[in-house]
Amino acid sequence: MSSDKGTVLLTGAAGRIGGKVLRRLLDRGYRVRALVHRRKPDGISDGNLEILTGDILSQEDMKRAVSGCRYVCHLAAAWDMFPPLVHEKENNQLFESIIRGTYNLLEASYALDELKVFLYASTDAVYATGPRRFAEPITEDTELQPSRFYALAKITCETLCRQYGKLYGLPWLIVRICWALDPDELLHVFSYEFWKDAMSSEDRGRLEPELAGGKGVFAPLLADGSSAVDHIADPEDIAAGIVQGIENHARGVGGTFNLAGPAPFRYLDVIEKLASDLGVPWGSARVTGSEPYELRNDRAIATLGYAPEWTMVRMLEKAARLRRAAGGAPR
User: Does the predicted model carry a pTM greater than 0.70?
Assistant: First the structure.
């Protein structure tokens, strides 16, 4: 395929979403300069791919990285998907990797003559999804309310992007990504271990013999006994939305867009089939700290052409199929 679309600087190219973004950009004829620090993208060999080793905390490295690029796609961020905390132990660590790193990249990018878009990957954590109670679905206009410093750092970087736009004319675009999980990570969310600290000691005593150690799967309940609700995406959908942000940047510049799965889901609606597909029992119990929410995709659908395809049923079917093929049980 012809590579006349220009070069994209991609940070986070070795991540669960970044690797899929990388493949899609190459498939669409972009030249990609993948900035790597400790890890390199696996299994990709393409004449339009340049691997550049550098540190986002080095302004000189960032100047070298953005040179000649038409697009900057900043996905890299240090954070913790699940306990135990590693990257989020200290605010100083997050400040350096997220805020200072983004600042360095903005400083290197704003003076580029042919820059079409600086795409910044933020997170639904800026809304405090999970612990926060919402009266209505979350849109991009919902008030921001960080529940941890990681989210605060992301809000700070969003603000930097917008203000660099006002001050220097930087063409920015922000995507707020919901929880995007690979198959094994998704099955972990349906495990007893993931939820045990949020349930009562009585329920732990009842469920541990049946479900712990991968013997079964778990569906959390709200305080009133109804099903807990989450909104989780497949990384393939999120990667597609990010690439659409690059492709349709002329319509999206200066905008903020939620990227999530097609719809939220109720754990009780999917747990029985998951248990059957895995050949294990399932259980449920009331948990604390998990409020239902829906992240609306309307703006990304209308403006960027975002079209998420992976429903929770499809995601769980894929996860169960892969787990069976590997001969394992849920962890």
Answer: yes
